[in-house]
Amino acid sequence: MTSSQTTKKQELPPTAWAVLGLLSFPGERTGYELKKWADSSLRFFYWSPAISQIYAELRRLEELGYAASVRSGPEEARAKRRYGITSAGREALAGWASDVAEAGPPVLKHGLLLRVWLGHLAEPERLRAMVTEHLERTTEELASVREAMAHAAAEPDWAFPVLALRWSERQHLAELELTRALLADLEGLEDLLGQERQAGGDAPTPG
Which of 93, 147, 152, 169 lies 20 to 30 angstroms, CA to CA, from 44? Predict the structure, then answer.
């Protein structure tokens, strides 16, 4: 590996390693197929890059010699470019995956909680509705996770992705429990604030 390649390797963002990771499983895939797989796997515990990001990273990985592509022949109605990992790419990915110092702490950006934090500016009914909608969305996501788990479990080479999806299943179950508790907390707070307002309204007027 040249010094230029070494520098680029050190500067690779997590998106590039995620795309290379998708390529590390058996078979060659198009950018579209990588996007579909990311949507049914990575997004449940990390995030899913946009299709434009995937193609940008594939070009970068090819420049580094970590990925290689072949264009389909005339037998296909529409020409497609399929990508696969190279031996250099597999070696680099194995080194990155083994470096715990690069993993970093998990980052939580909970849009709903940011709105709850600003609950003093919101209508109580709307806030409850947002929490209820989140509960419904999380229930749907849990079903999607379990569907992805069942699909991955049928592939012998996807044993480790199944473990990640199993963690995601537990995380979604915990999210459901936390959201139900949050809904109960909101209702309790509304009752308390209502009692305080009522007590204030019953107080004698000074004068």
Answer: 93
